[in-house]
């Protein structure tokens, strides 16, 4: 039963073959996702300026998610595989630990945003505005997907 899908082949779609433009398209889509996440939370902060309805300490999740975005994308895929970075004090293991810490921060900010959404805006339904909780969650989800797309959607030579 383990080889049931061995002979199944997914047809290759030639209409989305980007070739040399793949890095540019991935960078643009990732940037739009990142921008949209921050735009949602800025809109919520402008719509609900009162600290009682929207605690501004909730912005910490987005800041940590942004730091995680830079941590995740600061190491190349070649460094993770051990092809590009063999010298230095940390080497391939250090690059993998650095990437792991970035993903921990990213998942942590996404989990904290879920907790804020459900703990403060869904369960305690007495709040007048629910958009700030949704905006915090959307911000962190979009930053997370932006970092994944930018890390794994591009080829190794980003600007080549």
UniProtKB/TrEMBL annotation:
<dbReference type="GO" id="GO:0016020">
    <property type="term" value="C:membrane"/>
</dbReference>
<keyword id="KW-0812">Transmembrane</keyword>
<feature type="transmembrane region" description="Helical">
    <location>
        <begin position="24"/>
        <end position="48"/>
    </location>
</feature>
<keyword id="KW-1133">Transmembrane helix</keyword>
<keyword id="KW-0472">Membrane</keyword>
<feature type="transmembrane region" description="Helical">
    <location>
        <begin position="54"/>
        <end position="76"/>
    </location>
</feature>
<comment type="similarity">
    <text>Belongs to the UPF0220 family.</text>
</comment>
<feature type="transmembrane region" description="Helical">
    <location>
        <begin position="129"/>
        <end position="150"/>
    </location>
</feature>
<feature type="transmembrane region" description="Helical">
    <location>
        <begin position="97"/>
        <end position="123"/>
    </location>
</feature>
<dbReference type="InterPro" id="IPR007919">
    <property type="entry name" value="UPF0220"/>
</dbReference>
<dbReference type="Pfam" id="PF05255">
    <property type="entry name" value="UPF0220"/>
</dbReference>
<protein>
    <submittedName>
        <fullName>Transmembrane protein 50B</fullName>
    </submittedName>
</protein>
């Amino acid at each position: 039963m383990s080889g049931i899908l061995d002979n199944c082949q997914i047809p290759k779609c030639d209409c989305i073959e980007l070739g040399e433009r793949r890095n540019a398209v991935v960078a643009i889509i990732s940037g739009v996702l990142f921008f949209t996440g921050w735009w949602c939370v800025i809109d919520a902060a402008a719509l609900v300026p009162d600290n009682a309805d929207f605690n501004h300490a909730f912005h910490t999740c987005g800041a940590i998610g942004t730091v995680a975005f830079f941590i995740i994308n600061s190491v190349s895929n070649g460094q993770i595989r051990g092809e590009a970075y063999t010298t230095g004090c940390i080497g391939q293991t250090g690059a993998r630990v650095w990437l792991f810490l970035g993903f921990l921060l990213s998942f942590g900010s996404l989990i904290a945003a879920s907790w804020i959404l459900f703990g403060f805006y869904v369960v305690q339904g007495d709040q007048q505005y629910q958009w700030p909780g949704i905006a915090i969650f959307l911000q962190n989800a979009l930053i997370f997907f932006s970092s994944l797309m930018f890390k794994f959607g591009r080829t190794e030579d980003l600007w080549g």
